[in-house]
Design brief:
Jelly Rolls, five-stranded parallel β-sheet, FAD/NAD(P)-binding domain, Glutaredoxin, about 525 residues, alpha/beta, binds flavin-adenine dinucleotide, seven-stranded mixed β-sheet
Length: about 525
């Protein structure tokens, strides 16, 4: 299966071309560091590109202040990883081993040079992505998430970091090994995220972690942009790539994490170009890297709460927690929200045994237990296949009496061939039960009622569109999806009933609810916006 970058171990170390080094030298300035001098500390902004002329640089373990791993950077190499593109902060510290000379270029000037010289940009981004891939795989990071795996707040932070491919390590408060005990002492045995000795977030939330990493873009009042893209699922990110490629200034605001629903899919096999499949989170993250390269900005986790039209025709979007964005056009790419089970307290046990996605994060809860998946669509089928690798057994509960109407036939065949999967037709969940965590569920099939013991229930029974933030500015169909094109007399295909507001992907009435169609709509909508901005 494809990942987010090449394997750094097997990548041949290719030096930058001589003309590229000359171009970097022309806009940078030389700087020298003494042996043992710190070159970047955790939390410092990645605001300059560092090309190493001579010397040696090591990455530090923030707690022991000793070298992390055995890799150092030397002449001909450059410092940094993907956070450089988004203007994030360093999450690993760096120190000169011996006297080191670098050429340093301010971030904006370097991004400008990369935009002008695509071969240079390809080289740098390939190395940055491979480094991030390796950091994530090895969990090499100063970021330590401390708290119980069963704590929903800790789970949210973990899910936010993994979906955004930020490397981190998790430690349980009851951990008995030396490192866990020392870290827990640092935070007084309470849930926290620590970056180093001095930088800790107590009772952490994704928003605070994002702020510490400078991912949420400090939006003050009245930030202006040509296009405001709301939602960073496949549709929003495809729009972000194409807006940047067309030279339009675009800002993407995302409520949770890059990927949208696709981020919850562990393996997408029907997206062209990935014959061995790709996880939805990796696919959309690749798109984000591409969009950042074209200069599109991202702010997350931030939610657009409402939209209004100013007297001068600009759209004004208000964010949760304050801040406004003024935009000449809007792309609604807000997708759908999962449906909950029709029970009295459907939110009970959410993230404590009840899940709406089946990724690595949730799969951990299926070890040594039976998992139950509710639903008969493709997402339920994929989840069951994925979970069958770790769970003792996977039960699929389907209300109807067959799968062929709702699930692709290749998936039905796979489910039937997997001995650990059992499909229960005509079956519904009627109650959830447990202490702090789900322990068992009651299911009914006709008159027969039975109890299934499980600590992991996956609810995959469809979804409803996220349109509240559109504040009645556009027409919706009777199921709440946004109408576009001829149906509302719009001039351009993906335009809504209000000029300048466009809708793409799952939130749009009549769209095909698939990654490829969402990405396709996100890509083509930009030509309509370009035309609108030229002739509003
Ligand atoms: C488990 C699962 C597996 C799937 N597997 C496949 C598959 O294998 N192949 C396939 O083709 N399709 C698959 N799908 C369907 C596919 O993922 C969706 O069709 C696709 O993600 C839709 O993309 P989108 O960008 O339109 O919306 P979404 O992916 O729903 O993204 C919308 C984004 O908008 C954000 N948002 C919502 N409201 C706001 C707001 N007010 N402010 C800011 N942000 C907001 C959300 O947080 C979200 O990230 C799967 C879906 C699921 C759930």
């Amino acid at each position: 299966m494809e990942g987010i970058g090449a394997d750094l171990e097997v990548m041949k170390r290719v030096p930058l071309a001589a003309e590229h080094i000359d171009a970097i030298r022309a806009i940078g300035r030389e700087r020298s560091y003494g042996a043992g001098e710190m070159m970047a500390r955790i939390g410092d902004p990645m605001d300059r590109f560092l090309y190493v002329v001579e010397g040696e640089i090591e990455v530090l373990d923030p707690y022991s202040e000793k070298r992390l791993g055995d890799v150092t950077l030397g002449p001909g190499q450059f410092v940094g990883e993907l956070s450089f593109l988004s203007g994030g902060n360093y999450f690993l510290a760096m120190r000169a081993v011996s006297r080191t000379v670098t050429i340093e270029v301010a971030r904006e000037a370097m991004l400008d040079l990369m935009a002008r010289v695509p071969e240079l940009s390809d080289h740098i981004i390939t190395v940055f992505a491979a480094r991030r891939q390796q950091l994530v795989e090895r969990r090499s990071s100063s970021i330590k998430v401390i708290g119980s795996e069963l704590d929903p707040d800790i789970q949210k932070v973990g899910a936010f970091l993994s979906r955004n491919h930020i490397p981190f390590e998790s430690f349980d408060l009851d951990g008995r090994d030396e490192e866990a005990m020392q870290l827990c002492k640092l935070v007084d045995h309470k849930p926290a995220v620590i970056f180093d000795h001095d930088r800790k977030i107590e009772a952490p939330t994704p928003r605070e972690v994002a702020r510490a990493l400078n991912m949420n873009l400090d939006i003050g009042d009245d930030l202006r942009t040509d296009i405001l893209i709301v939602g960073a699922g496949p549709a929003g990110v495809a729009a972000a790539v194409n807006a940047g490629a067309e030279g339009l200034s675009a800002l993407v605001v995302e409520d949770t994490a890059i990927g949208g629903q696709a981020g919850a899919s562990s393996r997408i096999e029907n997206y062209m170009g990935f014959p061995t499949g790709i996880s939805g989170a990796d696919l959309v993250f690749r798109g984000q890297i591409q969009a950042l390269r074209f200069g599109t900005r991202f702010a997350m986790p931030r939610r657009i709460e409402r939209l209004s039209v100013e007297r001068d025709g600009l759209f004004c979007a208000t964010l949760d927690g304050g801040g406004r964005v003024l935009a000449r056009s809007i792309v609604a790419a807000t997708g759908v929200r999962y449906r909950r089970l029709p029970l009295e307290r459907p939110e009970q046990f959410e993230n404590a045994g009840v899940f709406y996605a089946a990724t690595e994060t949730e799969a951990r809860f299926c070890r040594n237990t039976d998992a139950v998946v509710v639903g008969g669509g493709n997402s339920a089928g994929q989840a069951a296949m994925y979970l069958s690798r770790v769970a003792n057994r996977v039960h699929i509960l389907v209300r109807g009496d067959k799968l062929s109407d709702t699930m692709s036939s290749y998936l039905v065949q796979r489910l039937e061939a997997q001995p650990k999967i059992e499909i229960h037709f005509g079956t519904e969940v009627t109650a959830l039960d447990g202490g702090d965590h789900l322990e068992r569920i009651t299911v009914r099939a006709g008159d027969a009622v039975r109890i299934l013991s499980t600590r992991a229930l996956f609810v995959m029974i469809g979804a409803s569109p996220n349109t509240g933030w559109l504040s009645d500015l556009v027409q919706l169909d009777n199921r709440g999806f946004v109408k576009t094109g001829q149906a509302v007399g719009a001039q351009r295909p993906l335009e809504t009933s209000r000029q300048g507001i466009f809708a793409v992907g799952d939130v749009r009435a009549g769209s095909v609810k698939r990654v490829a169609s969402a990405a396709g709509e996100g890509s083509v909508v930009v030509s309509g916006i370009y035309e609108f901005l030229g002739n509003p």
